[in-house]
Amino acid sequence: QVQLVESGGGVVQAGGSLRLSCAASGRSFSPFAMGWFRRAPGKEREFVAAITYSGSSTRYADSVKGRFTISRDSAKNTVHLQMNSLKPEDTAVYYCVTDQDVSGNWGAWGQGTQVTVSS
Hints:
By secondary structure, the chain is mainly β. The chain has strands at residues 3-7, 10-13, 18-25, 34-39, 46-51, 58-60, 68-73, 78-83, 92-100, 106-109, 113-118.
């Protein structure tokens, strides 16, 4: 079973940048897509970004498109989320995910890392 550990969260002022990383361990890096979700206080969890195993295809939530960039290094079993032009509404716990099944459900989740954007 894969384990996912996120890092890179913190407190930043609006307009600033953060880079989240997620390290996968526990099995060899199978050809699964990886992604990020977030949960803001008082809100439901929402999709942020995803990337295919090869890294050739990515998709983003409309709310982060043009500001966030997802990338991965399969040789190092890591995925990153570069977040620029951060807004207070980006404040949330960010979760790394993988093991997406044919129905689109993500089977493995990290513990999450807090991102706080101050105005």
